[in-house]
């Protein structure tokens, strides 16, 4: 049986601290506290900056004696996160879990993972390869994914391409330039005009 | 397959482990690992038949859940190591020995500790109540820390490691010694449901992974 008294305390503590940490945890539904949604801001100074990332949380019956199951629902380009499933490769969510960790500290660790990828222990081999062999492209793609999937307020990539097409650029070229510019439509426009 | 010999040697192993309590903790884990492997392995008729190059004898492990009377047979090679590591190695620190858990002193919570909380349940300690103190001086409710240490023998706060049971150490060194022999890459898992009338474990009784889901 999940220790719901503890989960309740964790949620309270988390919402008290939200201004400082930026970490949000809310129940998925009113029915149970065993399924939650976590939100972390992309760390400043990384390709994830400006993005808001959602993480699906499922608490096993033995929580907090077993780690919470966490998985990105926001698509993210990172060596230790599956670009397909959102599965996270992080030791504290597996064998290095401790019951003194909380949902907040676990999410803070996930956020730290965004800042400090560990390509030697990859979850996504393709991303890890790119990170090691072509770091600039990795940064571009990661930023592009952040722009496309983790920024709800800004224009989606489809709209951006559409905008450039309307300006008279071929769609394929608009898309690839936008991609290379990490989703920055102004930079893409500059490149398209100069190229 | 030589199931009789298999079973007698397994029961040897089982009787050597006199702490049924620990076994009941391990079994769902073992069955869980078996379920995962079974799902990942394509079901082949007989992998030996189609592969004449295979000469190394297959490793085979039989696991029983004494409570639900389920049996799992794991056959395979090098991946068995990683599968079994999930029981203690890769799956974090093994449980603390019973002696080391019992040896933790009870300490009284005084005024000075007022407001501090148990890092496991996040409840504050009651003044004049008692807590268990680990060798690293970290304090928890007795029930909270004992439950953790029977799963993993490390301090939740500082990861100070507690002594493990002797047999854990033996098991570890045996595993290490055996590593060289395991060259076969394939794992095969079969699950049998123990018939109440008699222990029939022939392949005909094999059932799919549904049986393993508890
Ligand atoms: Zn406690
Ligand atoms: Zn400690």
TrEMBL record, chain A:
Domain UBC core intervals: 2-151
Which SUPFAM superfamilies has this protein been placed in?
Answer: UBA-like (SSF46934), UBC-like (SSF54495)
> InterPro entries from the entry?
UBA, UBA-like_sf, UBC, UBC27_UBA, UBQ-conjugating_AS, UBQ-conjugating_enzyme/RWD
Q: What class of enzyme is it?
A: transferase
Molecular function terms, GO-annotated: ATP binding; ubiquitin conjugating enzyme activity
Q: Does the keyword Transferase apply?
A: yes
Q: Does the keyword Kinase apply?
A: no
Residues covered by the UBA domain: 156-195
EC code(s) of this entry = 2.3.2.23
Q: Name one Pfam family in it.
A: UQ_con
Q: Which domain of life is it from?
A: Eukaryota
- Where's the active site on this chain? 89
Q: Which UniProt keywords apply?
A: ATP-binding, Nucleotide-binding, Transferase, Ubl conjugation pathway
Concerning its family, UniProt says: Belongs to the ubiquitin-conjugating enzyme family.
PANTHER family assigned to the protein according to its UniProt record, in alphabetical order: UBIQUITIN-CONJUGATING ENZYME E2
Name under which the protein is recorded: E2 ubiquitin-conjugating enzyme
UniProtKB/TrEMBL annotation, chain B:
* Catalytically driven reaction(s): S-ubiquitinyl-[E2 ubiquitin-conjugating enzyme]-L-cysteine + [acceptor protein]-L-lysine = [E2 ubiquitin-conjugating enzyme]-L-cysteine + N(6)-ubiquitinyl-[acceptor protein]-L-lysine
Q: Which SMART domains match?
A: RING (SM00184)
**Pfam families listed in its UniProt record:** zf-RING_2
GO terms, molecular function: ubiquitin protein ligase activity; zinc ion binding
E.C. numbers: 2.3.2.27
Q: What keywords were assigned to this record?
A: Metal-binding, Transferase, Ubl conjugation pathway, Zinc, Zinc-finger
Q: Which GO terms describe its biological process?
A: protein ubiquitination
Highest taxon of source: Eukaryota
Q: Which InterPro entries match?
A: Znf_RING, Znf_RING/FYVE/PHD
Where is the stretch described as Disordered? 36-58, 195-214
* Record's GO cellular component terms: cytoplasm
Quick check: keyword Zinc in the entry? yes
Chain ranges of the RING-type domain: 118-159
* Name assigned to this protein: RING-type E3 ubiquitin transferase
